[in-house]
Amino acid sequence: MDTFFTAHEAMQLDLEQALTREVPGKGYYNLSAHMVWIGDRTRQILGSHVEYFRGICNPIGCKVGPSMSPAELRQLVQILNPDKVEGRLVIITRYGHEKIDAMLPEHIKAVQATGVPVVWQADGVHGNTV
């Protein structure tokens, strides 16, 4: 039997909340996918999506690109993975080929400064790869 995993951007918070369940002794899980992520439209530090993501135990992703400052990224990774759990947070880079050289090193330094472990993933759909 093949094993596969599902993921999607959790844009419709009311739907995501309706598909979230408590697993006794383990916490709350979004059962709509194995991994859900937030992006430019939903990753505001004081926004409801970030608050929701803080409360679920799934692996979570966050798209990061030109609109995010290193300071904001530093703050966001600490909010989303305060316990520094390996594999919990995936940073999905989305810069485009013209901006990746200028932005990625500063974002890497910002995350490293926090000590929060992340998985770095290039979003190949958005010009980060050859």
What is the topological layout?
Elements: E1 7-9, H1 13-18, E2 20-23, E3 27-30, E4 35-38, H2 48-54, E5 60-64, H3 70-80, E6 89-93, H4 100-114, E7 119-122
Parallel strand pairs: 1-4, 4-5, 5-6, 6-7
Antiparallel strand pairs: 2-3
What does this structure look like?
This protein has helices at residues 13-18, 48-54, 70-80, 100-114, and strands at 7-9, 20-23, 27-30, 35-38, 60-64, 89-93, 119-122. It has 130 residues and is an alpha/beta fold. The strands form two sheets. A five-stranded parallel sheet has the order 1-4-5-6-7, with helices on one face. A two-stranded antiparallel ribbon has the order 2-3. Strand 4 (35-38), helix 2 and strand 5 (60-64) form a beta-alpha-beta unit. It is globular and about 45 Å long.
Tell me the Rg in angstroms.
15 Å
Enumerate the strands of the largest sheet in spatial order, edge to edge or round the barrel.
Answer: 1-4-5-6-7
Residue share in β-strands: 15-25%
Shape descriptor: globular
The helix tally amounts to 4
**Biggest beta sheet summary:** 5 strands, parallel
Element-by-element helix/strand order: EHEEEHEHEHE
How far is the first residue's CA from the last residue's CA?
A: 33 Å
Specify the helix fraction band.
25-40%
Give the number of DSSP strands. 7
Please mark out the parts with pLDDT under 50 across 5 or more consecutive residues, or reply none: none
